[in-house]
């Protein structure tokens, strides 16, 4: 006899577990299914983000940044450390402990909110009167009946054609986060978020890192001025980035990996490395979902087709996060998860893709929200721009990190903020002010008139807003 629930969520990543908790808060009987297995064999909810994505990468970025500061910058503060060494095994163990804290935290939240958790793989069996039968296979086999189904199965790394991940020589994000020693030479294909973050981790620890990027421009999705500033910083650090390349044959051997490619100028080249990280995008996880058994519509990429409210072509079936259209970002999935739960309850929430922030957690960090300058030019939109460098910010000077700037774009006539772009220290935190401002349709003048604490990095945001009207006070 199938257990009956008001809402069954398939997947406990950021979109899924948040949808389950919000639905439970709204008074529904909720089940959440997730198959992720932790190192000890138990459940590990949190999806890619918690297990092999956002959380572990930030842990390694933090550890590697501490190491680089101790090795290169502590002396600037009068701190003598002597010979500095890195224990990679201990660093990875700390990363694993951080991941487990987050796994356990989600299980606690399920218990707190009375969400019934099933450890296994969820898939559609058939549509029945009053909902859908969902099979749970694996460690905790069961059969569930759900009136509403929320699919939040996430995504996985895209492999190079004909070159499978072995997580030994050829690594996805999974293998990149599990390296137990520092490779002498590390190759990365793809200069996106994952490529830059993983490249930064292992470069700081001593690897010679080369990133091959197919696009002719660096960080094409970011504002061009900000991207150029970031590239300049990465070049100075020794992170080698080659743009406009065409990757050819990839060969593995006992010694490592050899990548044949053509440079932007058309010359044949070869890159030999100990390890290769492939970060060329991600594909939706819909294999084994049983979409065909109920007629759930997928697109040519294998993603679930949804409307602007995350409704699928089937009544009572919703989908959120990486498995649907839109940016593959954990916080986007969370917002969609909340919105779907509230729509099930008859509410009318809204998720604005234009105010979803983007962050790259390198050093310097890169963050943005809204339109870029090149997008505004292409659209023929009249705008004003204001920038302010961290070089002129007192808190940045005290930190010893004055790299980068903040840039604000505003409508030429109304002064409404259209986009905010940042590169520099802690901009992953500073971008939140810009998101709030854009959500409330603020003008650059609004931010310019708000009192910001001194000394703080956030003053650079205020000064950039002042610069829109050409009246900065400290530069």
From TrEMBL:
Q: Where is the active site?
A: 454 (proton acceptor)
> Which cofactor(s) does the record list?
FAD
First-listed, main subcellular location of the protein, grouped into a coarse class: cytoplasm
The UniProt entry, under Pfam families, shows: Pyr_redox_2, Pyr_redox_dim
Name its species.
Answer: Tepidimonas aquatica
Family of this protein:
Belongs to the class-I pyridine nucleotide-disulfide oxidoreductase family.
- Keywords annotated in UniProt: Cytoplasm, FAD, Flavoprotein, NAD, Nucleotide-binding, Oxidoreductase, Redox-active center
The root-end lineage is: Bacteria, Pseudomonadati, Pseudomonadota, Betaproteobacteria, Burkholderiales
Q: Which residues bind NAD(+)?
A: 190-197, 213, 281
UniProt keyword NAD present? yes
Keyword Flavoprotein listed:
yes
- Residues the entry annotates as binding FAD: 58, 122, 153-155, 322, 328-331
Domain Pyridine nucleotide-disulphide oxidoreductase dimerisation stretches:
356-465
Give the misc comment: The active site is a redox-active disulfide bond.
FAD/NAD(P)-binding domain sequence ranges: 5-337
Protein name listed in UniProt:
Dihydrolipoyl dehydrogenase
Q: Which InterPro entries match?
A: Class-I_Pyr_Nuc-Dis_Oxidored, FAD/NAD-bd_sf, FAD/NAD-binding_dom, FAD/NAD-linked_Rdtase_dimer_sf, Lipoamide_DH, Pyr_nuc-diS_OxRdtase, Pyr_nucl-diS_OxRdtase_dimer
Q: What is an annotated GO biological process for this record, any one?
A: 2-oxoglutarate metabolic process
């Amino acid at each position: 006899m199938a257990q009956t629930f008001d809402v069954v969520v398939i997947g406990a990543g950021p979109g899924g577990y948040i949808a389950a908790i919000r639905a439970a808060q709204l008074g529904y009987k909720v089940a959440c299914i997730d198959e992720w297995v932790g190192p000890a064999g138990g459940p590990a909810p949190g999806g890619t983000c918690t297990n092999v994505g956002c959380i572990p990468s930030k842990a390694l970025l933090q550890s590697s940044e501490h190491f680089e500061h101790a090795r290169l910058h502590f002396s600037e503060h009068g701190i003598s450390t002597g010979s500095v060494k890195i224990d990679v095994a201990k660093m990875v163990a700390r990363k694993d402990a951080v991941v487990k804290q987050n796994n356990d935290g989600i299980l606690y939240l399920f218990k707190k909110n009375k969400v019934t958790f099933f450890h296994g793989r969820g898939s559609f069996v058939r549509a029945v009167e009053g909902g859908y039968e969902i099979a749970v296979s694996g460690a905790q086999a069961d059969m569930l009946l759900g009136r509403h189904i929320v699919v939040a199965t996430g995504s996985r790394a895209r492999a190079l054609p004909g070159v499978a991940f072995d997580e030994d020589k050829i690594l996805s994000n999974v293998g990149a986060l599990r390296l137990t020693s520092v490779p002498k030479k590390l190759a990365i294909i793809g200069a996106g978020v994952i490529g830059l973050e993983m490249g930064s981790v292992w470069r700081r620890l001593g690897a010679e890192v080369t990133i091959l990027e197919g696009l002719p421009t660096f960080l094409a999705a970011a504002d061009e001025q900000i991207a150029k500033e970031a590239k300049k910083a990465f070049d100075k650090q020794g992170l080698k980035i080659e743009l406009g390349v065409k990757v050819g044959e990839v060969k593995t051997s006992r010694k490592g990996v050899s990548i044949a490619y053509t440079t932007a100028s058309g010359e044949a080249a070869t890159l030999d490395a100990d390890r290769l990280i492939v970060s060329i995008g991600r594909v939706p996880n819909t294999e084994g979902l049983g979409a065909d058994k109920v007629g759930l519509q997928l697109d040519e990429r294998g993603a679930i087709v949804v409307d602007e409210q995350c409704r699928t072509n089937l009544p009572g079936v919703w989908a959120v996060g990486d498995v649907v259209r839109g940016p593959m970002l954990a916080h986007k999935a969370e917002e969609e998860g909340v919105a779907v739960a509230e729509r099930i309850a008859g509410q009318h929430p809204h998720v604005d893709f234009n105010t979803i922030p983007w962050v790259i957690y390198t050093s310097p960090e890169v963050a943005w929200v809204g339109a870029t300058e090149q997008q505004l030019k292409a659209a023929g939109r009249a705008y004003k721009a204001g920038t302010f460098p961290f070089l002129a910010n007192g808190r940045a000077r005290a930190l010893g990190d004055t790299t980068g700037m903040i840039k604000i774009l505003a409508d030429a006539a109304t002064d409404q903020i259209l986009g905010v772009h940042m590169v520099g220290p802690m901009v992953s935190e500073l971008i939140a002010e810009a998101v709030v401002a854009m959500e409330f349709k603020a003008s650059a003048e609004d931010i310019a008139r708000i009192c910001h604490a001194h000394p703080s990095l956030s003053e650079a945001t205020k000064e950039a807003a002042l610069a829109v009207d050409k009246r900065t006070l400290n530069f």
